[in-house]
Write a structure and sequence with these properties.
The complex is a heterodimer of chains A (about 400) and B (about 120). Chain A is mostly helical and about 400 residues long. Helix content of chain A is about 70%, strand content about 0%. Chain A starts with a helix and ends with a helix. The C terminus of chain B is likely disordered. Classes of the chains: A mainly alpha (about 400), B alpha+beta (about 120).
Chain lengths: ~400, ~120
């Protein structure tokens, strides 16, 4: 029975997203809530029925059958059928009621990919794209999404409601983009998957297993794109490589109390060699063609971080130079300065850091605290004290207080 | 925020040959300088380096080999930076590795295209 308790939430997430994608595709955004309700009802019934009678022999087949029947019943009963869907089936036959709901592996994958393109649409804000992806493509509960975003259920419900409304208003169809559109549409999808991964990797949420799940889901969806011939593009492979390299340090970068452990202080034996090897595989796959994306550069930076030798910093510095020329971001500017301190020393890096004009940025003051440590400890302490005021995360506060007390002794 | 073009002027000296290590070192100086400006979010456009091969086209289809005969110095490339003032752009130019090769940097304000069109019409 213990095993069952673990099985149901796992099944729920995996199968919820699959069935919702297929039914959602069938109903369109106009009636996406109906699809979601049918799937929720199915799982409710499963929880009740399996609780009483025990697990069926094939739980997945059970879920598919029930979901199919519920969907068919709904279509038969509801006007929706005659208005929207029957019009498409009119020419088929007299037996138009025998509508086919295809829950084959191929149709599930296709539907999920189409749903991914539909949700990752710039007409809705990035946050809403991530929220909807978590709900529809990953089967996360509203509470889990709220937890990941450090907010409450009402906020998430509102956000998802507005997003679906907007997708309806804009007549966004759940379909695969045209061939000549794929690359540009893919960029939006990749941005969302990248943010989804970062949400898990850099989140302040104390819920470690939830954060891991976010990373795993982002990787699963990216992998889904690699499985499709049209979307298996170099940038997608670069993104997956980046995710593999980063995840390889997931355990090592988390301290006992959920605080982040600085790269230098990580126990390298905790790095996951298998994920590093996978990252290398996808990085190789990504290096075809001429286009170099920020994912390529970030994956290459992450690759060098998995190398345990010292002379990697010059490579990392040059990659950050290129990345910043391609696209500025404060975090890349700060990381470049860290790499600079590794190649030309802390004193010279301080001069460069002061030019960044990032006063008031939590990570900037952490970096300055680090750079001044051992150079001018008074300045190090005052920067760490500013950082302390800027962060709300308890784990980070503990960490910084620790640095300050070390400097004072 | 205004834009300024940093134009690199250099003298071509065919007698100077750099070793691969020297080339690597020059490349690093340029990349670090550009990366430093990009890290300050002041690099607007990484521009282009210009080769020594070229020609000058004048009125009446007159094409000459280039301005080499008249002036020794030639433009070897440009980038565009974004700063509030000319003084700030000049500060950035002071770090340019072109000085190591005896060159200089010309700092010029960039006139947005829309303004150009406006003045013409």
């Amino acid at each position: 029975m213990e095993k069952d308790k673990e099985l149901i939430p796992h099944l729920f997430r995996a199968e919820y997203s699959k069935i919702t994608a297929v039914l959602g595709k069938l109903f369109g955004f106009d009636h996406i809530e109906i699809a979601e309700d049918i799937v929720s009802d199915t799982f409710m019934l499963a929880a009740e029925s399996w609780g009483q009678k025990g697990l069926p022999d094939n739980p997945v087949a059970w879920l598919y059958t029930v979901a199919k029947n519920k969907a068919k019943d709904y279509l038969k009963r509801n006007q929706l059928f005659s208005d929207k869907i029957a019009s498409k089936l009119k020419y088929n036959s007299q037996e138009a009621y025998e509508i086919e709901i295809d829950l084959s592996g191929k149709n599930i994958t296709d539907s999920q990919l189409q749903m991914m393109f539909a949700i990752c649409n710039p007409v809705i804000p990035a946050e809403a794209q991530i929220g909807l992806s978590l709900r529809i493509l990953c089967g996360f509960g509203i509470e889990e999404i709220a937890d990941a975003f450090l907010t409450n259920k009402e906020t998430i419900n509102k956000r998802l409601f507005r997003a679906k409304e907007k997708l309806r208003d804009e007549h966004i169809k759940i379909e695969f983009p045209d061939k000549d559109e794929v690359t540009s549409r893919l960029n939006t999808v990749l941005t969302t998957l990248y943010l989804l991964f970062n949400e898990g990797y850099y989140s302040l949420s104390q819920n470690i297993s939830l954060r891991k799940d976010l990373c795993v889901e982002a990787m699963r969806l990216t992998y889904l794109l690699i499985g499709n011939e049209t979307t298996n593009q170099p940038t997608v492979n670069a993104l997956l490589a980046l995710m593999c390299f980063h995840s390889s340090r997931f355990e090592a970068r988390l301290g006992q109390h959920g605080e982040s452990v600085l790269y230098e202080e990580q126990d390298t034996s905790l790095w996951d060699d298998e994920l590093i090897a996978r990252g290398q595989y996808y990085l190789n796959k990504s290096s075809v063609g001429n286009a170099i994306s920020k994912y390529h550069l970030e994956a290459a930076i992450a690759y060098w971080h998995t190398i345990k030798t010292v002379d990697k910093w010059e490579h990392i510095l040059q990659l950050y130079n290129t990345l910043l020329m391609l696209e500025y971001s404060p975090i890349a500017a700060l990381n470049r300065t860290y790499a600079l301190s590794k190649t030309i020393g802390k004193e010279a890096a301080i001069i460069e850091a002061e030019k960044l004009r990032l006063n008031g940025n939590y990570l900037y003051h952490c970096l300055m605290g680090y750079l001044y440590s051992g150079v001018e400890n008074e300045c190090a302490i005052s920067n760490f004290e500013i950082a302390l005021k800027l962060t709300k995360a308890q784990a980070d506060k503990i960490q910084i207080r620790h640095y300050i007390s070390d400097l004072k002794n | 925020m205004n834009e300024f073009s940093l134009i690199f002027r250099n003298e071509q000296n065919p007698d100077v040959q750099f070793s691969p290590e020297q080339m690597q070192d020059i490349l690093k100086q340029w990349r670090d300088w550009m990366g430093g400006m990009a890290a300050q979010n002041k690099l607007s456009n990484p521009g282009n380096r210009l080769g020594f091969e070229g020609a000058v086209v004048r009125k009446n289809n007159i094409v000459t080999d280039g301005p080499y005969a008249e002036i020794k110095e030639m433009i070897s490339g440009y980038i565009i930076v974004k700063t509030d003032t000319l003084e700030e752009a000049i500060e950035l130019a002071k770090g340019c590795p072109v000085f190591n090769a005896g060159g200089c940097v010309e700092v010029r304000s960039v006139i947005p295209m829309a303004v150009c069109e406006g003045t013409v019409s």
